[in-house]
Amino acid sequence: MVQRTDGSVAGGRRRTRPAVRLLLATSSVAALIVGAAALTPARAAACNATNTGVTIAGCTNAGVLPHLSFDNATSNGNVVNTGTITPGSPTGILVTNASTINGQIANSGTISVTGTGILVTNSSVVTNGIINSGTITASSGAGIAVATVCGCGISSFSGGIANSGTITAGNTGIIVAGVSLFTGGISNSGSITAGTTSNGIGVIGVSTFFGGINNSGSITAGFGGIIVLGVGTFLGGITNSGTITVAGTGGNGILVQGVQTFSGGITNSGTITAGNAGISVQDIGAFSGDIVNTGTITASVGIDICGCVTGFAGNIINNGTINASRTGIFVGNTNFQGGITNAGTITAGPFSGAGIFVAGVSTFAGGIVNSGTITAGRGILVVAVESFAGGILNSGSISGSNHVNATLKIFDVCRT
Question: Could you tell me the pTM of the whole model?
Answer without folding.
Answer: 0.87
